[in-house]
Amino acid sequence: MRRDSIFYKLFQQSPTLLFELLTNPPNNADAYQFDSVAVKEPKFEIDGVLLPPENQGAGVVYFCEVQFQKDERLYERLCAESSLYFYRNRDRFSDWQAVIIYPSRSIEQSDSHPYRAFLNSDQVHRVYLNELGDIRQLPLWVALMVLTTLKDEQAIEEARYLLTRTRQEQSQPSSRAIIEMVTTIMVYKFEQLSRTEVESMLGITLQETRVYREIKEEATVNLVVRQLNKRFGEISEELRQQIANLPLPVVEDLSEALLDFTSVADLQAWLEAQ
Q1: What is the rounded CA–CA span in Å between residue 19 and residue 22?
Q2: Quick check: 244 and 221 in contact, CB under 8 A?
Q3: Whole-number pLDDT of residue 130
Q4: pLDDT over 70 percentage in the chain
Q5: pLDDT of residue 206
Q6: Euclidean distance between CA atoms 108 and 70, whole angstroms
Q7: Is residue 38 scored above 80 in pLDDT?
Q8: Is the Cβ–Cβ distance between 48 and 11 less than 8 Å?
Q9: If residue 36 lies in a helix (H) or strand (E), which one and from where to where?
Q10: Which DSSP helix (H) or strand (E) runs through 33?
Q11: Which of 4-13, 52-61, 208-217 ranks highest by mean pLDDT?
Q12: pLDDT tens track for 187-228
C-alpha cells in the first residue's frame, strides 16, 4: 500500500489536518500551506512542511514525517533535515516544530537515547495512530489517517461507516473530497480487486477517470519523481513532464527500472527508448 502518496494527498486536501493532532495548534492554523521540500548539499527530502503565511511576519514552520516502516536512522535524518532547512530559511521563520506520525510505537526507532533532548522537548510531537481512540469518534480527516492502518476486514467496515458519516455531516465540496480519499485508500489497500469489486465492497459507484486514471496515475508519477529526486537530486521540470505524460503501465515499469540507474543520463536514455 503506497502510504506516502496517500498522506501527501491528505495534507494537500486538508493542510490543517496536522494541527488536529496537536494539543496547541497555532492561532493562524487555517492560513498555513502544505508543501514538500528538498534540501540540497547534502540532499534531503522532507515528507511534508506546513508553511506559515508570508504576509504575517516570521512564523513557525512545522515539519511532518510519516513513518510506517522502522528506520533506525530516522531521528538522525530528521534532526539534520529540520535544522538545515530552518538554518537556510531563518529570516522567514521565528521557530520550528516537528510532528512524527507512526502507526504504532513498535515502528519507532529502537535507539533514541542520543536524541532524548530533541524528542522530549516541546518542539517534537510523536503521534501513534493506533492510540488516538475509536476511529468513529475522531474528526473525519484524522479518521482517514487511522483508516490506512486497519486490517482489511475492519477497514471495509470503517470505510463504509465513514462514507455514511461524510454524507450526513459534510457540505458537498468537503463531502466529495473525503469520499474520494476513502476511495483512494481502499483502492490502494485492495489492489488485487477489480473496479467492480471495490464498488461493491464500498456500496458506491466510482468514476473510472477520477479513481483509476487520475488518482493512480498522479500518485504513481509523484512516487517515481520522489524516488528519482532522492537518487540524483532535483530532476528538471522537463523530465517531470515527460514522466507525467507516460501511460500508467510505463510509469510502473520506470519505478522498477530506476533501481538500476546510476545517473540522470540513464533516465534520459530510458525515456528516449520509450
Answers
A1: 5
A2: yes
A3: 95
A4: 89
A5: 57
A6: 6
A7: no
A8: yes
A9: strand 33-39
A10: strand 33-39
A11: 52-61
A12: 888 888 876 787 788 887 655 435 455 666 777 888 888 889
> Which stretch of 45-59, 84-98, 144-158 has the lowest confidence by average pLDDT?
45-59
DSSP letter string, the chain: --HHHHHHHHHHH-GGGGGGG-SS--TTGGG-EEEEEEETTTTEEEEEEEEPPGGGSSEEEEEEEE--S--TTHHHHHHHHHHHHHHHTTTTEEEEEEEEEESSGGGS-S--GGGHHHHTSTTEEEEEGGGS--GGGS-HHHHHHHHTTS-HHHHHHHHHHHHHHHHHHS-HHHHHHHHHHHHHHHHHHTTTS-HHHHHHHHTS---HIIIIIIIHHHHHHHHHHHHHHHHHSSPPHHHHHHHHTS-HHHHHHHHHHGGG--SHHHHHHHHHH-
- Considering only CA atoms, which of 3, 33, 28 is closest in space to residue 15? 33
Q: Count Cβ atoms below 10 Å from residue 119 Cβ, excluding itself.
A: 20
pLDDT in tens, 222-271: 888 888 988 888 888 889 888 988 887 888 889 888 888 888 998 999 99
Separation between Cα atoms, residue 234 and residue 236, nearest integer Å: 7
Separation CA 179–CA 45 (nearest Å):
30
Q: Which helix (H) or strand (E) holds 208?
A: helix 208-208
What is the DSSP track for 133-190? --GGGS-HHHHHHHHTTS-HHHHHHHHHHHHHHHHHHS-HHHHHHHHHHHHHHHHHHT
Residue for grid cell 483512494: 184
CB-based contact 21:142 (threshold 8 Å):
yes
